[in-house]
Write a structure and sequence with these properties.
- This protein has helices at residues 10-38, 42-55, 60-72, 76-89, 94-106, 110-123, 128-152, 156-169, 174-186, 190-203, 208-220, 224-237, 242-266, 270-280, 288-304, 308-321, 326-338, 342-355, 359-375, 380-384, 392-406, 416-436, 439-446, 464-471, and strands at 479-483, 492-496.
- It is mainly alpha-helical and 497 residues long.
- Helix 1 (10-38) runs antiparallel to helix 2 and helix 8 (156-169) runs antiparallel to helix 9.
- The N and C termini lie far apart (167 Å).
- 72% of the residues lie in helices and 2% in strands.
- Strands 1-2 form a two-stranded antiparallel sheet.
- A hairpin with an 8-residue loop joins strand 1 and strand 2 (492-496).
């Protein structure tokens, strides 16, 4: 049977020829794109692959090539779209599935990436690249799981570690970067957190998460007004951003409560100030810098209320939160001075002076060192039971009382141990009176000088009995201890001549 000739319309034939021309042209563009890709001129390669797609929009390999170029330009979202279009056109296009998986992984969608790599392994089970990428996707999922657990347990260092590892495999994932930045802020590493957030905002100025992190850093650096502006901006971009909403509320509440406490302190209402600072400390435990100031402020109010031990604890809490907080060291040192804990005061003032070498700090350190030196001597004021501002009459009365209380004759019936102890105390009372009743010696003693260097009590010729006899009217008949007939051992009455 003879073949039948079929006439083709001229338009159809022209269309076929035109399509063939377009395909040849597209192939030419692709070859030029390949040449630029090899030279690592990815921008030009992108342009030629785009021309190839325009000429032949049904060719999966052109989308695959442009996706590879976009990946080299770190434009992973666009690359993902091209990869997905490539596999829509050809479901067996292995490179298309592989690139789609890599894009998903780079953007942090490890589960979707795993599905893509699994598809490649179905097409080619021995594909080593797909095997490795599948392992990488599994690793990222595990880092995510560990980070979520760490965040829940407030182990922010662990979260940063996990996110660093995940970002090594998912470099374009904003979600991982934001989580890392948030944890850096919570760890007080504000410059690093700000840097991460700023990098994201340069690419996307409306990113609510990055705006939130910027605000969080400012908030934790006690720049509350600026922080609120960023939180408000984040809420404009994402009205349902719960973290930004909570941080904004906390920032406003913290500022208001702190200012209320400061005003109460200025009004000398120290009880109210103490309570307001206490309430402010419950608002946000994560705000280290502001809470350090609140503890220090509460310590100041506590010192005004004579709660010195509590004031010391509050200043210590402030220093634990911020070990560079000079005001807290100064407050605590003053409380140590007021409670006669001079070694601790010296330690704090040394820390302050090492940090800020001012005349005032040097003076405070020297004063504390002097008080420490004085505290290591006998405290003659304590021996007599008087204050450091006692008058001459008060010192004399105190000596009379203590000398009679500890005189050896009064304890002649006591045990040898008691007699020895009372004799020692009697001698100390005499020493104390000798110094504090002599204006020159008293001044030198108060100024911290060593009296033994001036021929004081180091020579062994001091006799407390001579002081006693001189005070009570001379040697002999001026004063007698007599035992009461009905009294027990050690009970005496005193008769003055």
């Amino acid at each position: 049977m003879a073949a039948v000739d079929i006439d083709m319309p001229m338009e159809t034939e022209a269309h076929i020829l035109n399509q063939q021309d377009m395909e040849r042209e597209a192939e030419g563009f692709k070859e030029q794109g390949n040449a630029f890709y090899v030279k690592k001129d990815y921008s030009e390669a992108f342009n030629y692959y785009t021309k190839a797609i325009d000429a032949a929009p049904k060719n999966a390999s052109y989308y695959g090539n442009r996706a590879a170029t976009l990946m080299m330009l770190c434009r992973f979202r666009e690359a993902l779209e091209d990869s997905q279009q490539a596999v829509r056109l050809d479901d067996c296009f292995m490179k298309g599935h592989l690139r789609e998986g890599k894009c998903h992984l780079s953007l942090g969608n490890a589960m979707a990436a795993s599905r893509c790599f699994q598809k490649v392994l179905e097409l080619e089970p021995s594909n080593s690249q797909a095997q490795q990428e599948h392992k990488n996707a599994t690793a990222v999922q595990e880092y995510e799981r560990m980070a979520d657990f760490g965040f829940e347990k407030r182990d922010f260092r662990k979260v940063v570690y996990c996110m660093d590892r995940a970002l090594a495999l998912a470099s374009a994932c904003h979600r991982f970067k934001i989580l890392k930045a948030e944890c850096l802020a919570l760890l007080g590493r504000y410059p690093e957190a700000q840097s991460v957030a700023s990098d994201i905002l340069r690419l996307d100025a409306t990113n609510a998460d990055a705006l939130y992190v910027r605000g969080l850093c400012l908030y934790y650096e006690d720049c509350i007004d600026k922080a609120v502006q960023f939180f408000v901006q984040a809420l404009r971009m994402a009205p349902d951003h719960e973290k930004a909403r909570l941080a904004c509320r906390n920032a406003k509440a913290l500022k208001a409560k702190k200012e209320e406490g400061n005003q109460a302190f200025k009004d000398n209402n120290y009880e109210a100030a103490y309570q307001l600072y206490t309430e402010a400390l419950t608002i946000d435990p994560n705000n280290i810098k502001t809470n350090a100031k609140l503890y220090c402020n509460r310590g100041t109010a506590g010192a005004k209320l004579k709660k010195l031990d509590q004031a010391i604890e509050d200043c210590t809490s402030a220093i634990k939160l911020d070990d560079t907080y000079i005001k807290a060291y100064l407050r605590r040192a003053q409380c140590y001075m007021n409670t006669e804990q001079y070694e601790e005061a010296v330690r704090d003032y040394e820390k302050v002076y090492q940090t800020e070498k001012t005349k005032e700090h040097k003076h405070l350190l020297k004063t504390a060192q002097l008080e420490l030196k004085k505290s290591k001597r006998k405290d003659y004021y304590k021996v007599l039971g008087v204050g450091k501002n006692a008058t001459d009459d008060e010192i004399k009365k105190a000596y009379r009382k203590r000398a009679l209380m500890h005189h050896p004759d009064r304890h002649s019936a006591a045990t040898p141990e008691v007699q020895k102890e009372e004799e020692k105390k009697f001698k100390e009372v005499g020493e104390a009176f000798t110094v504090l009743s002599d204006p020159k010696k008293k001044v030198r003693y108060d100024n911290g000088h060593d009296l033994e260097d001036d021929g004081g009590f180091g020579g062994g010729d001091f006799d407390a009995n001579n002081i006693f006899r001189a005070f009570f009217g001379g040697q002999g008949g001026g004063f007698n201890f007599e035992s009461s007939p009905n009294a027990g051992p050690g009970n005496f009455f005193f008769q003055f001549g």
